[in-house]
Amino acid sequence: MILLTPGPLTTARETREAMLSDWGSRDTAFIDLTAALRRRLLALAHGENTHACVPIQGSGTYVIEAAIGSLVGATDKLLILENGVYGARAAAIAQRLGRKVTSLRWPEATPVDPEAVRAALKANADITHVLLVHCETTTGILNPLQAVADAVAAEDRALLVDAMSSFGALPIDLRATPIAALLASSNKCLEGPPGIGFAIVARAALESAGPAASLSLDLKAQWQGFEKNGQWRFTPPVQVVAGTVKALELLEAEGGPSARLARYRNNFASLLAGMKRLGFAPYLDEAIQSPIIATFRTPPAWHLTFDQFYDALAARGYLIYPGKLTGADTFRIGCIGAISSGDFEKLLAAMDDILRRPA
Ligand SMILES: Cc1ncc(COP(=O)(O)O)c(C=O)c1O
Fold first, then answer.
1. Helices H, strands E: what count in the chain?
2. In angstroms, rounded to a whole number, what is the distance separating the alpha carbons of residues 206 and 204?
3. Ligand 1 centre from 304 Cα, in Å?
4. What's the whole-number mean pLDDT along residues 305-313?
């Protein structure tokens, strides 16, 4: 199966093979593997001098919940910049945790406006933290990370970035971009297996963090555990750690995030050209579209339902993704994973074949 989804996604055989062993969670071999995971992730973000990498068991949402519950204190206030479902989910998490939260909202096809963020911070001295979703996977829209980070830093607030579907491919450099906590997971642009979320957090923010809202999703305690003896506080997903370390080695062998981004751009270009040929219109303006995942409008006069189209493609070995938009009938195709433009040419041929069949 080729997974054209935003994760879990198609992984390399070497990554899957790296998970064929057992590891004792307190054994030196696994402690070394964990150290390699944390070191490599930190280095990818260029955070060695300022930040610490804190992996946590679970999916991306778990680390978002851990970061909000650990870094936004009971007397703090979080501003969420929302233009899709993942921003909305972060707001729901903050509410559930009893943290003070407010949102600035944009339509799903409009990027976050850094000037509006600056104005909101100037007008609301009680806001202490801001959360931005770098690539909103709802549509694939790319939000202006550097400009938002500069605006937040100029107003002396802390920025949390959900970089779930951008980290490992789109450039993120903590030496140049002021970010208190960068949040991502093992199974998107890193092309690892699912099961680990991680936060790359400014050490000063970890040191000054008060009590977390959750016992298990406590980034400071998790970090202190790693610093004390190199071990995870609770049962670690040992195979996922091994698979992710292998995926990180493969990322390095490919030439790092810039080489990976170039491959994803190629994938996206093949997909977009072919979809237009087949009569599908992209939902987003190309100027604000990331090469991570693309949203297409369902053609108005279509003889298929999405489920029929999905099943026909699945029968040919391709898994696509339903739309997540509230106001438009769409579906999505991911460009990330251990896949290249040749896979997209085959996908497009399969689509062409399906579309030519009578209703
Ligand atoms: C931008 C973004 N944030 C958060 C998440 C949540 O991650 P998970 O589904 O792994 O919990 C996703 C998942 O696709 C995402 O794309």
1. 12, 14
2. 5
3. 29
4. 93
